[in-house]
């Protein structure tokens, strides 16, 4: 184990030119490092070290290798570990505990939702579920997010009515940029209505414009987006046809709109 830590320190602090006669670390030492088990994660790819030692080359103007260096390449499991820590610190860890296994599907409509969501979780298609409250929309979307996260895909979660003001912050666009570019984004309660509202929500132009900006960027760059809403897709099309049509095209068969039916509200069971 001492050798492992010593090699980690040497590789992290030095660029090792393999074409020179004197090397701070040898190829044999690199192999020793890559065969050592660490305790950063339980990843089989890097054996839990979090990093993989590799040889990388530099080329001249003619494309010929001129120098080679030893580097430590971060394993993808570390990004998953960081996202898990962020989830715990931000209070959304309970969402990542919602899985397909603990989604109760008794009726045919629930079985259909679960089946579509399980299929969707394995790919890059978008997923939309809207309509009746209390039907497990957040649970099933969280299960998709959880599956993606467990497969080392970077995920982020936003609650639309809580985060829309951050999206509209023109002085600091770092928040929306992160949401635009993450591999998998879950937007919960898109266009959430205020309590007591029975019709479509009262939305400002910036509300719609910033939401469109986020959706459009992810649409153009084919980045997986999972969306839940109390509104049906037809309702969203009435609010903004351009935005709704992008969701519809990207989600395709993974578009679910549940009719209003209090019998489907599991909170009232």
UniProtKB/TrEMBL annotation:
PROSITE patterns: SIGMA54_INTERACT_1. InterPro entries: DnaA_dom, P-loop_NTPase, Sigma_54_int_dom_ATP-bd_1. Pfam families: Bac_DnaA. GO terms for biological process: DNA replication. GO terms for molecular function: ATP binding. It comes from the Bacteria. SUPFAM superfamilies: P-loop containing nucleoside triphosphate hydrolases. Keywords: ATP-binding, Nucleotide-binding. Residues 98-247 form the Chromosomal replication initiator protein DnaA ATPAse domain. This is ATP-binding protein. It comes from Peptoniphilus faecalis.
């Amino acid at each position: 184990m001492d050798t492992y830590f010593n090699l980690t320190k040497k590789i992290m602090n030095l660029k090792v030119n393999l074409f020179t006669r004197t090397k701070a670390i040898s190829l044999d030492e690199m192999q020793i490092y890559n065969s050592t088990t660490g305790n950063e994660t339980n990843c089989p790819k890097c054996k839990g070290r979090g990093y993989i030692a590799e040889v990388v080359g530099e080329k001249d103007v003619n494309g010929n290798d001129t120098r080679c260096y030893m580097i430590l390449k971060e394993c993808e499991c570390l990004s998953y570990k960081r996202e898990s820590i962020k989830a715990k610190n931000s209070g959304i860890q309970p969402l990542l505990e919602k899985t397909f296994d603990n989604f109760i599907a008794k009726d045919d409509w629930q079985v259909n939702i679960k089946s579509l969501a399980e299929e969707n979780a394995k790919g890059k298609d978008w997923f939309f579920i809207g309509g009746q409250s209390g039907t497990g929309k957040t649970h099933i979307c969280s299960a998709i997010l959880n599956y993606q996260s467990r497969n080392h895909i970077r995920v982020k979660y936003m609650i639309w009515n809580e985060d829309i003001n951050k999206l509209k912050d023109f002085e600091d666009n770092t928040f929306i940029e992160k949401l635009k570019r993450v591999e998998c984004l879950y937007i919960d309660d898109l266009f959430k209505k205020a309590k007591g509202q029975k019709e479509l929500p009262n939305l400002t132009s910036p509300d719609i414009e910033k939401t469109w900006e986020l959706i459009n960027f992810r649409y153009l760059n084919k980045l997986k987006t999972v969306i839940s809403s109390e509104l049906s897709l037809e309702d969203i099309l009435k609010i903004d046809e351009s935005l709704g049509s992008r969701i519809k095209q990207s989600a395709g068969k993974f578009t679910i709109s549940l009719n209003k039916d209090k019998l489907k509200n599991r909170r009232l069971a």
